[in-house]
Description:
Residues 628-762 form the IFT80/172/WDR35 TPR domain. Belongs to the IFT172 family. InterPro entries: ARM-type_fold, TPR-like_helical_dom_sf, TPR_IF140/IFT172/WDR19, TPR_IFT80_172_dom, WD40/YVTN_repeat-like_dom_sf, WD40_repeat_dom_sf, WD40_rpt. There is one protein chain. With 1754 residues, this protein is α+β, with helices and mostly antiparallel strands. Among the domains are: 2-316, Methylamine Dehydrogenase, Chain H, CATH 2.130.10.10; 434-525, Thrombin, subunit H (Beta Barrel); 529-593, no CATH class; 629-754, no CATH class; 968-1025, no CATH class; 1414-1441; 1442-1680, no CATH class; 1687-1754, no CATH class. The longest helix is centred in the middle third of the chain and has 28 residues, at 1073-1100. The chain is extended and about 190 Å long. The two termini are 49 Å apart.
Amino acid sequence: MQLKHLRTVLQAENGIAKISAIAWAPNNNKLAVCTSDRVVHLFDENGEKRDKFSTKPVDAKYGKKSYVVKGLAFSPDSTKIAVGQTDNIVFVYKIGEEWGDKKVICNKFPQSSAVTCLIWLTEGPIVIGQLDGKVRAANVKFNKSQTLYTTDSLVVSLAANSRGTGFLSGHLDGTIVRYCVSDDGSMEKQGRVVTHPVPPYALAWPVGHTVAAGCDLRVAVYNREGQIAKQFDYSRDEKEKEFTVACCSPSGQAVMVGSFDRVRVFSWSPRKSMWEENEPREIQHLYSITALGWKRDGSRVAVGTLCGAVELFESVLRRTVWKNKFEMTYVGPSQVLVKPLAPGSRGVILKSQYGYEIEDVRIMGHDNYLVARTSETLLLGDLQRNLLSEVLWPNSGHHEKFYFDNPNVCLIFNAGELSLVEYGDNEILGSVRTEFMNPHQISVRLNERKQNSAEDNKKLAYLLDLKTICILDLVFGVTVAQLTHDSKIDWLELNETGHKLLFRDKKMRLTLLDIIKGQKISILTYCTFVQWVVGSDVVVAQSRNNLCVWYNIDVPEQVTLITIKGDVVDVVRADGKTEAVVQEGSHQLGYELDEGLVEFGTAIHDNDLGRAVTFLETLGDKPEAEGMWTNLASIALELNKLHVAERCYAALGDVSRTHYLRRTIEIGNKYAEENDGDFMGCPDVWARLAILNNRLKDAEAVYLEQNQLNEAITMYCNLHKWEEALSLAEMKGFSNYDQLREKHMQWLLDTNQEEKAGEMKEHEGDYNAAFNLYLKANLPSRASRLLQSNYEMLENEEMVYKVVTALVRSEMYEQAGELFERVNQSEKAFDCYRKGNVFSKAIELARYVSPAEVVRLEEEWGDYLVSNKQLDAAINHYIEAGKTMKALDAAVGARQWKKAVQIIKVIDDPTTVVNHYRQIAQHFASIKEYNTAEKLFLQAEMYEDAIDMYNQAGEWDKAHFLASQYLDTERVSQMYLAQAQNLEQQGKLKEAEKLYISVTEPDAAISMYKKNRQYDQMMRLVSQYHPDLLQTTHLRLAQEMEAEGNFKAAEQHFLNAEEWKSAINMYRAADMWEDAYRVAKSHGGAQAANQVAYLWAKSLGGESAVKLLSKFNLLEISIDYACENYQFEFAFDLARSAMKSKMPDIHYKYAMALEDDGKFKEAEEQFILAGKPREAVLMYVHNQDWPNAQRVAEKHEPESVTEVLQGEAKEAFKRENYQRFESLLLRAQKADLIIKQYKDAGMWVDALRVCKEFLPSHLTTLQADYEREVGVKGSHDASTLLTAANNWEQSGDYKAAIDCLIKVTNANTNDSSLLIKAWTQAADLTNRYLEGAEAVEVVKILGPRLAEVGQHTAAAQLYIGADMIKEAIDIFIEAEEWGKAKKVAQELEPRYESYVENRYKESLRREGRADQLADVDIIGALDLLSEQGQWMKCLDTARQHGPNVLHKYVALYATQLIKEEQPFQALELYTKYDAPPFSQNYNIYKRIAIDIFNLTGLSSPDSYAQWAELRNMLLQLTESMKTSSDAGSSVHDEFNILLVISHYYASRCAYKGVESLDELVAKLSISLLRHTDIIPADKGYYEAGVDARAIGKESEAFVFLNHYLDICEAIEESNPDMLDYSDFSATDFPMEIPLPTSLHLSPAQHEEVKEWVLAVSMDQKVDQVLPVDDRMLYPASLSSGSGQSAPTCVISGYPIMSVRGRNPVEFKRVGMLANREDWNKVMMAVKMAPESHITDVINFISQWCGGVPMFSFQ
C-alpha cells in the first residue's frame, strides 16, 4: 500500500497543541478533528474546512479548561457526533446533513468516571472506555447508558471490527478484551483475548486478528485464540519511539500504527496468508502522532500530531481507469472504490465480505452496473442505487454472460444454467436450466407490487423449450405453473404481481395466462408490440394500425382501440400521465392513455376501495367502467366490504344483488345493535354471503348449526334447488316432505320442465302421462323408447304416428326407421335410414328390399365416412363398391399402409399414383421395412428416394449398390461425402468411415477419428492407407496423450513409434519410476535399465536409494557413475551408507572436478582428504598460485618445495621479473639454472654477471659461448640488435645504430613494445643526426612503420623533419587528428587546406556523424540522416533552413512511407508540416488520398479522425493552389474532387454516430458512386447497398449490391467488359472504371451479400430497379434533363432541389449550397449532441464554404 501526501489540513503550532481525536463520517463526506482548544473542526473529504463548533464542559462553572476531549465518533447516519470528555460525560451533538446547520446537543450521557476513549459502532451503541476500567454502552434512541463489563484497569484504547458489530478494549495492565454487541454470523469468542506485555495504546481489530503495540517498540499480531501470529520488533532501531495510536482500514486488511515522525502500515496478503510490512512513511519534524482516522471508503488517512498538525494522506494499492469513464481505486486487496470521472458524481465502495482479493472489476449495462470477481465469489452492483451483492461463485472459466435489463436482478447465463442475483442480497436468488438466453424470453418480478400479505412475492418465467413456459416461485423454489403452447414463443412478461403472464408466439399471437386460475386465452393477433404499464395491470399492445389498451385485463374482451399510423416504440408513465410513444416516420408522437383508468388498478392493488369507488363514479357510462365495477365488487366481497360491494352492484344495475346486500347489511346492523358487536359476527350475514357467492353447502351448514332446518330448505326452494331440498328434507325427516314433492312437481310443470316431469311420471308407472309429457317437451326419442318398451302402446297406431312424425321433424331418422321396422313398414324404414346416413342398417335392409342399391350405398357410405374423417372405415366400402382410387386415397389418408400396398398393386399404371407410391414408401421406410419401401420406390422410378432411405437408415452397402446402379459416379461421390460429414456430426463414425472409404477419401476418415479421439481406429486407417506416416503419427499421438496425462496410451504410441526413450522420459517426468524401469529394461536393455535405476535412486535419496541399488546390484557402478556425472553429494551419500572404501576415490574425483571448476580451496581440501597432497601442490603450481603451492608443500609435501620454487622462478622470468627469478632459484640453490636461463634467452650480460658472482669457475667457458653466439645470431635476434644499436650509438655511429634499429622487425620479435621502442629510437636519431637524401631514405622506411604501430605523431614529425608535408598531413588524417592536419596545412602548406576539408567531409559522411557534418555541409548531413532513417531529426534540421529544403525531405519521407503502405503516417507528415502547392509533390498527395480510399475498416465513427485529417490537408492544399500558377488548372480540379470525396467519407463517419442521420449516411455512400473511377468500385457499391438497405431502400440496395457482385466477378476474371451498366442509365455514375486488383470484402461478407441478393431476387415485392424523380433521373444524379449539372449539396452530396418553395441554404462562397432539409437535420443533431464529430463537420463546412449561415443552430 502506498501513502501519498495530499495536503496539510491544519498547520502545526510552535509548541504542544495535541490533536486529541479524529473521526471520518460513514458517508465519507465529513472529517471531524478535535484540537487542543477543545474545538471540533469539520472538513470536507478534500480537506477543505467547512465548519466548526466548540465543545462544552459538564458544568459551565468549571470553565473550558476543566476537561480534555478523549474521543470523537460519528453516528452511523453521519448526522451526529459523540464527544467523550474527561469531566465524566459524553455529549452527542446533532450537526445536520448540510454544512452550516445548527449544532445542538441532542443526548447527554453522564458517567461515573472520566472518559478515556470512545467509539460508535455502525451496528450498535456508543462504546465508552473509562478511567475506572468500566466499558459502557450508550443508546441514543433511549438516551440511556449501561455497563457492559468491568475490569480493574483503566481503558487505554478501543477498536471496532470492520463490520461494526463488536469491539476490543485495551487496558493499562495489557489486558485486551473482545466483546460483540450483535450477531453477524461470524462471532468470535468473547472475553479476554490476550494480555499484552505493555499497555496497548495502539490497538486495532483487523479481520481474523488483533494488532497491539505500545512502549516496547514491538507490533504484535494475535490470532482469534490470542496466540501470537506475527511480531514486528523495532526495539533495536534507535530512531524508533513508542507506538502511540493505531487504526484499521475499513476492509480490515491493513493496520496503520503511529509513532514519532513515522507511520507504519501492515497489510494482510490473502495470497500468502500472512501479514507484511509496507515501506514506512517517515516525515521529519512531525513529532508524535496522537490521532489517526481512516476514511470509510479506505482511500484516505488523516494523521493528527502532538503539535496540532493534521496531515491528509492517500492510501491506495493501485489505480486503473475504465474506458475513460470510471476510476478504480484499489484501497485494499478486497476493497475497491469505483467512482465515475464525470464531475459531481459519487462512487461506490466495492468490498468482499469474505476478504477475498478482488481481481477484476468491470462496468457494464450502460455504465449502470458493475461486475467484479474474486477467486471464489462474484460481486455485482447497481451503481445508481448503491446496492452491492457478493455470491459464492467458484471459478467457471469466465464464460458467463450478464444481462442487466431488469433493474432489480442480474441474470447470469453460464453453460446452459441461468442464475439470478438480487442486487443487495448476498445469496443466489435461484438457478434454473435453460438454453434460451434472450432477455425477452425471461421475466422476473421481485416484490414490485406488494400484495395484501406481507410475504415476499418473487416469480420467474422462462422457457424450458421454445414451446414450453415454466413459472417458478423463487421464494419457495417450486414450480407454480408449466404451460405448453402450440407455436414457438418469442416474448413473455409477467405482470408486477406475478399473477398474470403475457406471451407472444412466432405467429404474432398474444396470449394471456391467469396463473392463479390456470386459464389461458388468446387476446390479440398480429401483435407487433406489447407492454405492461408500470405500476398497474394495464396492457398496451399494437396490432397493425390499432393501439390496443386493456384497462382491466381481467376482462380481456373489453379492449380500447386507438387508430395510429406508425409503430409503438415505448410506453412512458411519468408526471401523472401515461403515454404510448409512436414512431410516425421521422417523428415521435405520444398518445395519452386514460390515467384515471390506469390509476384504478393501483387503487385496487393498494386496497383503497373508497378511492377506487370515487374514481369509477367519474367514469360514467364508459365501456371500461362495467368490468371495473365488477372487479371491484368481487374484491369488496372477498374482503367483506359489503357497503362497497353494494355500491358496485348498484352502479352495474344489478338490482337484486344490491337489494340482497342492503338487506344483509340491515340484518347485520340489527344483530350488532342487539349483541353489541360487529355485524360480521351475525350467522345470517355469513349464510347470506355464502348464498351470494353460490356456496350453498356453506350456507346450509350455517343454518343447521343454528338449528334452522326450515330456513335451509327454504333457501334451496327459493333457489329452485329442489333435489337438494328434497334430499335434505328426507335426510332430516322433514314432516312436510310429501307436500314438498308436490310443490316440486307443480314447479316443474309451471316452468315447462316436462322432461323432468315425464321422468318422474315414468318412474311412478304413469306411462301415458309420461308419453304426453315427452312429446310436449319435444323429446320424441324418449317417447319412442317408451313406446317400444310397451307392447300395448306399440299397437296404438295414433301414438306411433305421433312419434314418427315428431322424429322425422327432428331429423332423428334412425329412431324413426327402427320404429317403422318394429311395425313392419320396411320401405319407410329404408328411406329413413338412407336420409339419416344410417348405411349399415340401410344396406342390411336393402339386401332384402332392394339388392341393386347395395353397391351404390357402399360408395355413398364411403363418401360419408370420408367426409366425417373416418377414412379407415371407408376403405372396405370403396373396395366393395369397386372404387379403387378412392379406396387408395382413403387407405393413405387413414395410414392403413398395408391395405394401401394391396390396393396399389392392382393399379395398372404406376405413373398415375406416383405421389401415393412416395407416401407409402416413406411410411415403410420410417418403420424400417426397407425392402417393401425399396420395391415401391423402384416401381415408381424414384431411385434417389430409395438411396436416401438407405443412407438415412445407415445401410450404406445397399444405398451404394442402388446409387451405382441408377446414378452417375460424380453424383454418387458428392452425395456420399455430404452424407459422411452429416453422419460424423451425428457421432455415427463407423458408418461415416464406410462412406469415406467408399468414395476413396481415407484422409477424411482419419481426421474424423482423430477429432473424436478414437485413436485405434485412426491408426488402423493410417497403417492401411499411409504406412509411411505411421511412425510420425504414433509419435504425435504419444505426445498428445502425455500432455493429457494418459501415460499408458502414450507409452504404447511411443513404443509403436520406436521411441522408447521418450516413454522413459515421460514416466520420469511424472515420477512413475517403476514404469520407466520396466520400459527401459524391456526395450532399452540392461544399460538403459541401469541408468533408469540410478536416476530412480537419486530421486529417492538416503537409505531408500541404497536399498534400491543394492537390490539391482548396481551400488558400486552407481557411485562411479555419479562421480562421472559430477553428482558427488549423491556419491558420498551412497558410499557413507554402504561402501566407505570408495570414499578416498570419491574425494579424489571430487577434487579433480573442483579444480576444473576453479574452486581451488575446496579442491585442496578434497585432495588432502583423498591422501594426495602432491596433487594439491601441482594444482596450485599449474594455476601459478605460488603462495598456496608453497604453503601446501611445506605443510604436507616438503619434498615438493624445490619444485615449487623452480616453477615460480620460471614464471617470474617469463614476466621479466628477473630479480624475483634470481631470488627464487638462489633459494632453491640452483644458480646454474639462472645462468642457463639467461644464456638461452640471449641475456649474456646478466648470465655473465651471475656466473661471475655465484659460479666463477664457469666464467671462461661462458664468455667463449657469448662471443660465438653474438657472431652467429646477431642478425636474427631483436635484443641483440638493440644491444648492438646501443653500442653503435654510444660510439657515435648513428647511421649504423639506425640501421640496427631498422632491422628490428616482426620477423625477429613479436613484442610490439620492443618494436615501438626500436623504431621510435631510430626516428629520434634520424631527426637529430641525419639530413638530406640519407634522412629521406630512412623516413620512407620508418614513417609507415610508426603509423602502423599507432605512433602517428612521431611519424608526422619524422615527415615534417624531412620536409614531406603532404605525407605528414595524410598521417594525421589517417589518425583522424583533423585539427593537427589542418594546423600543418595552414602553417606549412596552405594549398592543402581544401584537401584536408574534403577528406574531413568524406570521413564524417562515411561514419554517419551527421551532427558534425551539418556544421560543414548541411545538405550532405540531411542526406545522411535520411539514408540512416533518422527522419524526425532530418526534418527538424531541414525546417531550420527554409520550406524548400524542408519539403524536399518531407516528400522523400512520404514517398518511403507510401512504398511501405503507411499512407496515414505520410498524411500525418503533411498535416504537421503543411502541404505546399509544389507541382513535384502533387503525385504524392494523390497517392496518399487514393491509398487511404483503398483501405478497409474505415467506415465506423471511430475512423472520423483519419478522414478529417485527410480532408483538412486537401482543403489546405486546394486553398494554397488558388494563389499558385496551378490555380484553376485540371490538377486543381482533381484535388478539389479528392477533397469532396474525403469530405463525404469524413461526414459519413460522423453521421453514423447519430441515429437520426442514417438517411444522410446512405445519401453520402450513394453520392460517392459518382467517383468510382477514383475510389474502389466494389467497395463503393457495397457500402452504398448496405447503407441503403439499412434505411429500408431495398430496391436501391438490391441494384447496388447486385452490381457489386458483377464487379467482383469482373475482378476475378480480370475482364471489365463483363460489367453491365443498363441499371444505371438514369444516373451520372461512371460507366468506365478501373477494376481493383483485389476484392474489398472478406469471403464471409461477400457470401452474406450473395445470399441477400439471391433472397431479394426471389421476392416479387421488391422492385429491382433504381427509382427516378420528376426529372426521370435517379434522385442522386446531378445531371439534369437539359444536360446541365445541378449544384451539389455539401451535406449529402445529392443535387440541390427546391422543395415546396424552400430555398437551399447558401454559403458565402459562390456555388456552395446545401439542401435545407439536410442542413436542418445536421444542425438539429449538433444541437442534440454538441460534443459529437458533427460539430467538427460544421466547422469544416464553415471554413470550406466561407462561413455558416446565421440562422443555423450553433
